[in-house]
TrEMBL record:
The keyword Lipid biosynthesis does not apply. Pfam families: Glyco_tran_WecG. Pathway: Cell wall biogenesis; teichoic acid biosynthesis. It catalyses: UDP-N-acetyl-alpha-D-mannosamine + N-acetyl-alpha-D-glucosaminyl-di-trans,octa-cis-undecaprenyl diphosphate = N-acetyl-beta-D-mannosaminyl-(1->4)-N-acetyl-alpha-D-glucosaminyl di-trans,octa-cis-undecaprenyl diphosphate + UDP + H(+). Catalyzes the conversion of GlcNAc-PP-undecaprenol into ManNAc-GlcNAc-PP-undecaprenol, the first committed lipid intermediate in the de novo synthesis of teichoic acid. This is N-acetylglucosaminyldiphosphoundecaprenol N-acetyl-beta-D-mannosaminyltransferase. One of its GO terms (molecular function) is N-acetylglucosaminyldiphosphoundecaprenol N-acetyl-beta-D-mannosaminyltransferase activity. Belongs to the glycosyltransferase 26 family. TagA/TarA subfamily. Keywords: Cell wall biogenesis/degradation, Glycosyltransferase, Teichoic acid biosynthesis, Transferase. The keyword Protease does not apply. PANTHER family: PTHR34136, UDP-N-ACETYL-D-MANNOSAMINURONIC ACID TRANSFERASE (PTHR34136:SF1). GO terms for biological process: cell wall organization; teichoic acid biosynthetic process. Its EC number is 2.4.1.187.
Length: 238
C-alpha cells in the first residue's frame, strides 16, 4: 500500500473510495484493518512521544485528516490532494456496512451521546445494522469484549480520545472474533448525535474547518500553532 512519510510518520495517499475498496478485499480475505486520522497536531505529538508514532505507523490506514497534510504532500512532491477526515471516513464506512449487511458496534463517549448517535445513524442510513453499543465509562472490560463478540459486529468504532482509543484497539483486537475494521473516531459520536455542529460546508470544502473551530473557540490557538510548526519542519526536512 502506497504511503508517504512526514517527520517519520506514515500517511496513506488513498482516497475514501480507494480505502473502502481495499477494506472490502481485506474483509473478504479475513484480514483485520485499522484506521487512524493523522493531522499536523498528531504528527507533532508523534515526534514527542514514540508510543504515538508507533500507534500511527502500525495502523493499516493513516488517513490525512487536515489541510496541513495536503500542504506537506505538495511540498514533498507527494500524491495527497484531498482530506480524508475521521468523521467522514466513519460515515463512508457506515454506508459501506449498510450496503454489505455488516453489523456495526459503537463504543465510547457518554451514554446520552452514543445512544443518540445510534438513533440518528439508524434513521439516516437505510439498512444500517448497529448490532450493539456501549458508553465509554464501562468498567468491566471482559463483559464489554463478550458483548461485542455476541453482537457479531464486523466494524467497530471507538470514541475514547487519542491515543487511548488506539491503545484499547491494539490491546483487544485479537480478542474480538468477528470485527474486521477498527476505527478510533475521537469526537465523531458527538457530531453524529447532533450535540456538536460541524463547520459549514464552505469551510469543510475549502479545508478551513480548523479556522471555523478557532473562530468559535479562540482558546484553540495553542493547538492550531502545530500547523505552522509542522509545515516549517517539513520544509526543513526536504
Amino acid at each position: 500500500m502506497e504511503k508517504e512519510q512526514y517527520l517519520g510518520v506514515s500517511v496513506s495517499s488513498l482516497t475514501y473510495e480507494e480505502i473502502i475498496a481495499d477494506i472490502k478485499k481485506r474483509i473478504a480475505a479475513g484480514k483485520k484493518s485499522t484506521v487512524i486520522a493523522v493531522n499536523p497536531e498528531k504528527v507533532m505529538a508523534a515526534n514527542r512521544d514514540p508510543l504515538v508514532k508507533e500507534l500511527i505507523n502500525e495502523s493499516t490506514y493513516q488517513i490525512p485528516d487536515g489541510v496541513g497534510m495536503i500542504i506537506a504532500s505538495m511540498l514533498k512532491g507527494g500524491k495527497i490532494r484531498e482530506r480524508v477526515t475521521g468523521v467522514d471516513m466513519m460515515g463512508r464506512l457506515l454506508r459501506f456496512a449498510a450496503e454489505e449487511g455488516h453489523g456495526v458496534f459503537l463504543y465510547g463517549a457518554k451514554e446520552e451521546v452514543v445512544s443518540k448517535a445510534k438513533e440518528n445513524l439508524e434513521r439516516q442510513i437505510p439498512g444500517l445494522i448497529i448490532s450493539g453499543y456501549e458508553n465509554g465509562y464501562v468498567q468491566d472490560q471482559s463483559a464489554l469484549i463478550q458483548k461485542i463478540n455476541d453482537s457479531k459486529a464486523v466494524l467497530l468504532f471507538v470514541a475514547l480520545g487519542s491515543p487511548k482509543q488506539e491503545l484499547w484497539i491494539r490491546e483487544h483486537m485479537n480478542e474480538l472474533k468477528h470485527v474486521k475494521v477498527f476505527q478510533g473516531v475521537g469526537g465523531s459520536f458527538d457530531v453524529y448525535s447532533g450535540m456538536v455542529k460541524r463547520a459549514p460546508a464552505f469551510f469543510r470544502k475549502a479545508g478551513l474547518e480548523w479556522l471555523y473551530r478557532l473562530i468559535k473557540e479562540p482558546k484553540r490557538i495553542k493547538r492550531q500553532m502545530a500547523l505552522p510548526k509542522f509545515v516549517l519542519k517539513v520544509l526543513a526536512s526536504r
